[in-house]
Amino acid sequence: MAIKLRSAALAVGAVVVAGALGYTALVEYGLHKSYPQSIKVADTASADQIKRGEYVARLSDCTACHTQEGGKPFAGGYTLHTPFGDILSSNITSDKETGIGGWDQEQFDRAVRHGVGSHGYLYAAMPYNAYAKLTDQDLADLWAYIRTIAPVKNKVVENQLPFPFNQRWTLAGWNLMFFHDQVFQPQELSTAEINRGAYLVDGPGHCASCHTPKNLLGGDSSAYLQGGALQGWNAPDLTSNPHTGLGKWSNEDVVSYLRSGTNRETASSGPMTEAIENSTQYMTDADLHAIASYLKSLPASTTPVPAAVASTSEPMMVGKKVFESQCSACHVSDGSGIRQMIPTLAGNSQVNAPDPASLLNVVLNGSEGPLTHANPTAAGMPAFDWKLSDSNVADVMTYIRNSWGNAATAVSEQDVAKARAATHAKPWAGHAEESQP
């Protein structure tokens, strides 16, 4: 019932916003509006410019979203699951019929930095609200590289949203409320390194797309980089909060994580592994250190630390038994794990996160370790969906989140059941045994 009410509220909110702001929005963000022209790419770009553009594409993680699993790079078709429905990424190869081979640089700029494509306004699943911060030079270099991508004929029906969210003109109202169409402006009081890090995080890296919680209409809330929900995963707090964020990480921890997918505390999983494998592992050392310096300069979020669940409670006692029999061989009895390979659970900010979605996803469905140049032999996590009941998963999660100095809310059996259904995990094998006469 709560989900239905929330969906209804979203629909009503969207219609009201569109009705109230639609006319004004269409005037201000008209499809024929002229935008400042970026640096023009010559008919034949230099090898250096194309190479720079390829690096910008890496920074922007274009491959991850514009490549369907098993498909050709940049040919589109990747499904983005949003609270409003599914959106498929577009074909950005140079095919003139199904891609963007017929575009010029101005059309490319309008889509990437201003959110206006050939079909009208783009959905913010394409993070144009972050790419708006790209410098003219980076945009021009990116276009020089995109033009070199071989054509792939792959027609994609991008908009698969239900009414009224499939009406692109309503996005004009969304833009008025949440889109800041401005190139990145360095802060005078910050160092050059921190400014570079801010540019990478807020611009091409579009970190806020996942790590900043969204409001009911899908716009960024004021809790900048304090964690968000994404397709059954929890994108963690990136502020200096020592309990749920990066407060205990050093700059080198951040660099190691982005370069290899691992550090002394944790290993990546889910969408972040895709981002590391496709994007951050290719960043220069200078850019990785710039990101680390910027993130470590952010003030800590004010998320309160809850009281730990009592070790004498039944879930904690049962959870300890499950942990000792199923988890301790890899994560070690004191939760210390194996450095650079198997995450430590003690003091792990993701373990302490208010939202246990990522932990539940990994426990139920397993996780492949990040495969990077710096970490070619990553360890994976097996799936326990078939092996553990909802009750067992809830108890062991509660135990892990409240042992070795950790403190987080208990995980319920209902939480596990919802996660099992939402992530399409396998049913517990014991159900078949229970149903037998």
Automatic annotation (TrEMBL):
What Pfam family is a match, any one? Answer: Cytochrome_CBB3
Every Cytochrome c domain range: 48-150, 192-299, 314-404
Just give the chief location class: membrane
Q: Where in the cell is it found?
A: Cell membrane
Q: Which PROSITE patterns match?
A: CYTC
Signal peptide positions are none
| Keyword annotations from UniProtKB, A to Z | Cell membrane, Electron transport, Heme, Iron, Membrane, Metal-binding, Repeat, Signal, Transport
Q: Does Heme show up as a keyword for this record?
A: yes
What residue intervals traverse the membrane? none
Q: Which Gene3D superfamilies match?
A: Cytochrome c-like domain (1.10.760.10)
InterPro entries from the UniProt entry: Cyt_c-like_dom (IPR009056), Cyt_c-like_dom_sf (IPR036909), Cyt_C_IC (IPR008168), Cytochrome_c-type_DH (IPR051459), Membr-bd_ADH_cyt_c (IPR014353)
> What is the protein's given name?
C-type cytochrome
Which species expresses this protein natively?
Candidatus Pantoea multigeneris
